[in-house]
Amino acid sequence: MQLKLVQQMATESSYLTCSGTIVCGKETTVFMETLRELIRGSRSVVVDLGSVTRMDCSGLGALALAAGEARSRDKRLVLRRVPGCIRNMLRLTRLDSVIEIQEQAEAARADRESAA
To answer: CA-to-CA distance for 64 and 11, rounded, in angstroms?
Structure first.
């Protein structure tokens, strides 16, 4: 399944909903460029990975680069609805220690607070 990205903007946050595959090639390039653009324009970037069916090491690399760029600009990169296989890769590579991952309850609370 081809990568599909849907962007939504809020006051200080950007939301990126991803579906399909994030693998080496055009998908990863588009994913990284979109993340960079959102990081430059928002205080916080929330990435929903719930509909991502596959991610390889280049997708993980894009997330690591985006996390570094966000940190260097004093901004937040947050992952939501991370599928089990991707969560395992983040844990095995220890990227889960440098990229914020929101659990479902946290995400719902954050959404309510930003809507208020």
So the answer is: 25
Work out the widest C-alpha separation in the chain, in whole angstroms.
40
According to the model, what pLDDT value does residue 112 have? Answer: 54
pTM exceeds 0.85 for this model: yes
Give the separation between CA 38 and CA 77, rounded to whole angstroms. 10
Domains of the chain as residue ranges with CATH? 4-115 (3.30.750.24)
Q: Edge-to-edge strand order for the sheet containing 100-102?
A: 4-9, 13-22, 44-55, 76-80, 100-102
In sequence order, which residues have a C-beta less than 8 Å from that of residue 110 and are 6 or more positions away? 102
**Helix (H) / strand (E) containing 44:** strand 44-55
